[in-house]
Amino acid sequence: MYLNFLIHNSLHLLLPLVFCFYFFKTDWKKYSLIMLSAYLIDLDHLFSDPVFDPDRCSIGFHPLHSYYAVGLYALLVYFPKTRIPGIGLLIHIFVDMSDCARIYFI
What we know:
0% strand, mainly alpha
């Protein structure tokens, strides 16, 4: 359980950093901070009981992890001013989806 928690949170941190370092070499620090701010969507976990459940899939359960929200995050990518936060949110959702795959398929 602790290993899964460590891997999950490491991916939330590392994937945006690697993405920004690879695609935005000059301003990677600025864009990384913007993408890492996508972690704020996990505040919707505070409305759950228990707040953290290692066997619960966040996608479709929490309001900011709903399918409608994911669709909105995908739309953000198409507009230049919201592209970076949108990519960060989609990376966050991708990491959470990998947890769901672990829960249901492994």
